[in-house]
Amino acid sequence: MRITQLRSFHAVAHHGSVTRAAQALHVSQPTMTTQIRALEETYGVELFYRHGRGLTLTPTGKALYSVSLRIFSDEAEALGLLKEHGGLRTGELRLGAVGPHHAMEIVAAFQPRYPGIRISMRPGNSEEMIESLLAYRTDVAVLARYHEDVRLHAVPYRTHPVVLLVPRTHRFARRRSVKLVELADEPMLMREPGSTTRHALEAAMQDAGVSPTVAMEIGSREAIREAVILGLGIAAVSAREHTPDERLATVAIGDARVETTTVVVCLAERRESRAIAAFMDVVAGLV
User: Fold this and answer.
1) pLDDT band at residue 127, thresholds of 50, 70 and 90?
2) Distances (CA, A) of 171 to 237, 245, 282
3) Are residues 194 and 273 in the same domain?
4) Of 74, 108, 200, 229, which has the highest C-beta tally within 10 A?
5) Are 104 and 223 within one domain?
6) CA 271, 272, 273, 278: dihedral to nearest 10 degrees?
7) Contact call for residues 197 and 127 (beta carbons, < 8 A)
8) Which of the pair, 200 or 1, is modelled with greater confidence?
9) Beta-carbon contacts of residue 93 (< 8 Å; ≥ 6 apart)
10) Are residues 145 and 186 in the same domain?
11) How far apart are CA 203 and CA 197, in angstroms?
């Protein structure tokens, strides 16, 4: 197998199109097609399903793409080290985050020190971010929930209480706190099952012997906020991530300690990578 063949395959798998992949690698489309065909014919495999809508990875193609992600991630790291041995003057850091607040706080401290490092950020819940780290799609992740994992290196960052978000007209709105038992018959607007805030609230309610009444599952903070404003139910949110709004009120949970802890995580095997190590050093300095 030639590295040019693997690079062509990787580019098409990444971009989902021979045209876009050819543009990214600055080669012709026939060259890309020839490289991939040669790879398939040499090993007697099918890497893509070819149909009118474009290309889709086969199971073999997905497995190879997982390998090529690691290979080209390591290649990029090696090139960055060789080119910038004297300092982190250029490069890229792929950041994953469960929410913008803590991530932007860290980025704001990182960028003045390393202005040449370009940061891209993708959102998702904690489970999705860990999966992205393990698949080498993300370099560092800012998580709201973390379980000890020997494959990962983690630095605890901040802990914040979970509060209830209610419409200003709700009976809870004028109170400072409520007890978990009072939530038994309240229609609850819940994030998706991988959400840390949901996990924290459900665990506390289970300990209190209370079963939540789930009115809706909603996959984003913004949509949860709008649903609460419209009176579709109440929700649990991290106090750090709530933006004040005259239409909403936040109420503390008075009889349980319900919290989320933000943790910054990278792959243990990559913690000495220059850009990753620099980012984690900035995090440690903010703690």
Assistant:
1) confident
2) 18, 17, 44
3) no
4) 200
5) no
6) 80
7) no
8) 200
9) 117, 118, 119, 120, 139, 140, 275, 276, 279
10) no
11) 10
Q: State how many domains the chain has.
A: 3
For residue 231, pLDDT beyond 60: yes
Q: Looking at this protein, which amino acid is placed at residue 26?
A: H
Residue 44 CB neighbour total at 10 angstroms = 6
Residue 85 within any structural domain of the chain: no
Q: Record the tokens describing residue 224, joined without a space.
A: 């949860």
- Ordered alpha helix ranges (H), the chain: 3-15, 18-25, 29-43, 59-83, 100-110, 126-134, 196-207, 221-229, 274-286
- Tell me the range of 83-92, 224-233, 234-243 where mean pLDDT is highest: 224-233
CA–CA dist 200, 151 (Å, integer): 24
Rounded Cα distance between 80 and 102, Å, is 27
Are 228 and 165 a contacting pair, CB within 8 Å?
A: yes
Rounded to 10 degrees, the C-alpha dihedral 19/21/94/152 comes to 130
The amino acid at 254: G
**CB neighbour list of residue 152: distance below 8 Å, 6 or more residues apart:** 130, 133, 146, 265, 266, 267, 268
Q: Are residues 147 and 266 in the same domain?
A: yes
Q: Tens of pLDDT along 24-62?
A: 888 898 998 999 999 999 999 999 998 877 788 999 999
Contact 75, 101 (CB under 8 A): no
Q: What are phi and psi of 234, to 5 degrees?
A: -115, 165
In a domain, 234, yes or no: yes
For residue 155, give the DSSP letter.
E
Provide the CA 139 distance to its chain's centre, in angstroms. Answer: 10
* DSSP assigned state of 242: P
Residue 75 included in any domain? no
Cα R_g (the chain), whole angstroms: 23
**What's the domain range around 115?**
92-157+262-285
Three-state secondary-structure class, residue 256: coil
